[in-house]
Amino acid sequence: MRGMRMSNSIGTIFRVTSFGESHGRCVGVVVDGCPAGLRLSTEDIQGELDRRRPGQGSVSTTRAEGDRADLLSGVFNGHTTGAPICMLVWNEDRDSSGYEARRWTPRPGHADYTAHVRYGGFNDYRGGGRFSGRITAGFVMAGAVAKRLLSDALGVEIIAHSKEIGGLRASDLGVDAIRMNAQGNPVRCGDPEAAERMVESIMKASAEGNSLGGVVECHALNLPPGVGGPVFDTLEGDLAKALYAIPGVKAVEFGLGQEISRLKGSESNDEYAMKDGRIVTRTNRAGGILGGLSDGMPVTCSVAFKPTPSIGRAQRTVDIETLEEVTIEIGGRHDPCIVPRAVPVVEGMVAVVLADHAIRAGLIPTVMEVER
Amino acid sequence: MRGMRMSNSIGTIFRVTSFGESHGRCVGVVVDGCPAGLRLSTEDIQGELDRRRPGQGSVSTTRAEGDRADLLSGVFNGHTTGAPICMLVWNEDRDSSGYEARRWTPRPGHADYTAHVRYGGFNDYRGGGRFSGRITAGFVMAGAVAKRLLSDALGVEIIAHSKEIGGLRASDLGVDAIRMNAQGNPVRCGDPEAAERMVESIMKASAEGNSLGGVVECHALNLPPGVGGPVFDTLEGDLAKALYAIPGVKAVEFGLGQEISRLKGSESNDEYAMKDGRIVTRTNRAGGILGGLSDGMPVTCSVAFKPTPSIGRAQRTVDIETLEEVTIEIGGRHDPCIVPRAVPVVEGMVAVVLADHAIRAGLIPTVMEVER
Amino acid sequence: MRGMRMSNSIGTIFRVTSFGESHGRCVGVVVDGCPAGLRLSTEDIQGELDRRRPGQGSVSTTRAEGDRADLLSGVFNGHTTGAPICMLVWNEDRDSSGYEARRWTPRPGHADYTAHVRYGGFNDYRGGGRFSGRITAGFVMAGAVAKRLLSDALGVEIIAHSKEIGGLRASDLGVDAIRMNAQGNPVRCGDPEAAERMVESIMKASAEGNSLGGVVECHALNLPPGVGGPVFDTLEGDLAKALYAIPGVKAVEFGLGQEISRLKGSESNDEYAMKDGRIVTRTNRAGGILGGLSDGMPVTCSVAFKPTPSIGRAQRTVDIETLEEVTIEIGGRHDPCIVPRAVPVVEGMVAVVLADHAIRAGLIPTVMEVER
Amino acid sequence: MRGMRMSNSIGTIFRVTSFGESHGRCVGVVVDGCPAGLRLSTEDIQGELDRRRPGQGSVSTTRAEGDRADLLSGVFNGHTTGAPICMLVWNEDRDSSGYEARRWTPRPGHADYTAHVRYGGFNDYRGGGRFSGRITAGFVMAGAVAKRLLSDALGVEIIAHSKEIGGLRASDLGVDAIRMNAQGNPVRCGDPEAAERMVESIMKASAEGNSLGGVVECHALNLPPGVGGPVFDTLEGDLAKALYAIPGVKAVEFGLGQEISRLKGSESNDEYAMKDGRIVTRTNRAGGILGGLSDGMPVTCSVAFKPTPSIGRAQRTVDIETLEEVTIEIGGRHDPCIVPRAVPVVEGMVAVVLADHAIRAGLIPTVMEVER
Fold first, then answer.
1. Beta strands in C285-345 (DSSP E)
2. Chains with ≥3 CB–CB distances under 8 Å to C
3. What is the ipTM of this complex?
4. Structural domains in chain A, sorted by start
């Protein structure tokens, strides 16, 4: 049977390489190309990691992962050295007992079947292996470095929240409301009222052995104009590529997204104006990007996640050894809705892409200017 | 003012490099990494190019471009040699007269302002220069090579059509209907009835000095399972990145796309079954991709375009020299709706990405097996 | 039979893509990632191209190539735009008559056999096709852009000459002597006396139907310290890789090169000193590179070329169709010694690599600062 | 002060990313793109690592490193999974006490000064940090995977030895002699008699507080013809780039190397012949490479190392804080000659490059064919 090669690196100068498996020894990343002299500590990484930790309240898996960031290289005396930064999280609470039994019966909606085909059956199938949502712990660690870099060098802030869960949509909110409210509820939604209904909906789905999807909305503030890399390395293209690496993503759009295709040109163009001595647009339907380049307005995107494929119901599949149709039921501990935990992952991947592009734009010095 | 570097190449092994400007001497591409021994002629390239040619009927620009494919290297005795294939289209009907006058007043919705910031004013601003839709002539030429390769080596077929224009949506169609009908109407829509309404809607918008957007839907048939490159080089991610290089794209989604985020897990999972001795899914909500890898079902995506930003109405902008707010009107010859001409461009970019991934998957030999 | 893919691009940010064949329509390059605002004209390119032109005196081929640089994109109003620069030379004096006859009998020392294996016989075999020294016309054009960039942005100067031909070695010369003398003789040697003997030696070899090799020595002056990209993208490594792309190169060394391996540590270390307020080394045995990074001293390398494999003598080979051993004689117009014409090619490739690394080092702005 | 970014990855499909510092917590690598289904165990890695271990006899440093390979990901049930393989060696015997004192006085011949400039003083200067020879432990681990892959898939064997130390040159040896003898003496030389003199010479230099350099010669056997990637990714170019990543290398040559430039064409061309039904060359002056592609003969290269720059003698340098000229003496435990320990490192880097190119050539399946 045929297989294929993985490509576990992303970025051109600020470059992230992912490794590790759900039920192996660890998941981690190597971040290469970070400028020297950036203040960075294990606590910086841990803070972001804590935001994606499972076991927080009733809406997520009960797998109890301590998820302690372990910083192996690239930081010396509290600053980055310019050398590659290797960070990982050791896997502790691994219960692999159930996976052997269902090795040959791929779960619908998971990568079990496609991974089996690709790697000729040699893939680590326990808990999805390389295809588990757990690898996003590494994405968050890389994102923590990128966020710190963007913040220290350019004052860029990245804020995401759950815009929609199970079809329940938050009201349209300014970034201030999101920043204030999103961390105060278990679904990480900027609209507290909608958040309550989302929680109820998740619990109801969970009780029914079902799962929900949703949409994460993300804003990047203060990015200077002119960042991006036409014609192929557009901001939209590189952000979309990075976001599609998060398991479960099925749509990525910018600004008004698909809605803008239903407007007329006179309704969709963002006109220019002067404000406080700067060129701005009067509206931001384009999501801060024109011609693949930032225009100085907030960069906004929406990322749609399908419902968690692991559900507590009987499902039809095929035994890939005997090629017989069979019915399976999936046990294990799973999130009925992955969206809240995906919020810091989306922020992290957006940060990784913007850090790379800001460096390519010459906006970040190769050695940070710090007082010593 | 700062600027930044372009990145005009895409792909890992089957690699496309774009060059040229709207009002320069030519637009073209170099395709590197194509297997040797592929039958290829200028006519193959020309056939695809003709499908995107402007000046076809009432719905597009009157700029009369002959757009003759010129094949400069990499083909010998009717077959590819394995060497880079340089192809270009010479620019003939260039009317650059109007552009000097509006050099300093960026058009809303265009890349005029962001390109100016990025290149410190050195960019070729005539007709959008590097940011013009005209560069997609090169994408189509590269796509023609990729399509031929996918077809000859794997029997993969790629079919797109205009799914929606100005909010008017075609009915849900099978691929056979699209293949039969889409080339028979000026809007390239697989639903002839919807096509008529779309044409009317475009002509109405055009008469009002306005423009429309829309959605192109694309299907890739017969792709074997296991193609793609997790964790970062997913099929979705690489397709999205390539599609966002087409000017005007603001959303890319796969399978049910954003709609799948509103379903429950029990409604969104595609169950497996056996059919004619092959493992298939009973539904294809995931658009033929799981874990970033093809699952053997048709790969389907939707690409949303914003309305053409060039409209015949007064618009407010800023003079970037004087920093004063001004009002402009844009003349010139523009498409009131770019969507029909984008159909072969979407097909071409999808083909380029799938060709690269199929090669990476080991599915295409490095020398084509041909009878000689 | 198996084949493989070419990789016709080099560089990370300042990136060169080569295309074209010896007896096809043209040879050319696309240079991507050049900063905007660099003064550049066809004459700049032509000047370098003229230095490698054949037909100059008795020591090179009589193939009469006008070799006019044709600049297709990326330059507007006398400056680079930041868009990809496509440049080519049209092939004019093509005499392909002799190649069909010896298609199946690979010439010893040429790439005929290896190219045939790799491309399954689909390669353009006329005049070596993609493997001809003629593709270095493209290298020289890319080098001309890189030289101009290095010179305007950093004052870096790159000077090469023929250090050795047919075992005849020039005396050790300072850069000033090389600059003054190397262009004044047909072998491009900085030592006029040695040059005379080299010319005689080439003419003698030519008369005997034989050929000579030699060594090109290259110096890059004024490169600031800290340029390079450990651990893998060292200056030595990237320069060597670029130089090995020139047909016929068999050894690349830096500073004292292989000689340094025969010294003791106390004889080979370059001690530091202060000079005019700058840190310098008292000697330059390391060739200006430590730890893969420039140290501020001249970067010096030596590139050894094997003798031209085309000789006017009977040689034994194998008919790859019949697998019989046969004897061939090669006609055609060939350089008895390629070294003099390789001098600007070596300079060009060194310039391409240093331009890329200087950009990566943050030493060259993304938009050139020019008076307008 | 300016700095720059590192690039710590090499390879296109079989891709190695290096991390770690001499006196940090570990040194390691991530190997991405290895086919699934390759038999691989910690013992395979350890075996290669043991060959470069210091503390073996009188000719190397007394730093006592256990250097136990720790395999973190990518291997499951004794086979590679196709996922990235993270391997590292924890640093145990770290004595960093001496480094603070000489932080500001760069050692001649080391990267202390260039690294300081590049990273603005943020680099981990202890023991050379990222520039230490210790990072080659990672190269050897990656090389162990590559060797296993080349051997299992293609029967390729890679054998190096110390050809020359301190100017003492081994006699010309066949590969069989090298294979039999090189591991049996502390200098890893295939010529036992020369080995004795080399040992004496090293001990004498060591006693005098001095150091020696030398040349490692490497042979790769059984590589099929047609492997390599013109025009820029030549076998010579990619091997040279990889080899220059080993600290101390100053010359890389292939086949006869610089010597071939002193021959005539009639003396340097390798004529073809038939042998056992295969096309071979009668001689191998080109080192098995023509046009950047393997020709089926053994690929041979020579790698020259400068003497270890750490010597026990007073040396002049500059205090980079005060800019005053000063004299330093270096203590610590250093190898008087690094060449013997570099033998497995050279083999490893050659293996990494050949594995990548063999995969690119389509010669290695994406899933290994194994009996299960």
1. 289-290, 293-294, 299-305, 315-318, 325-328
2. A, B, D
3. 0.96
4. 9-360 (3.60.150.10)
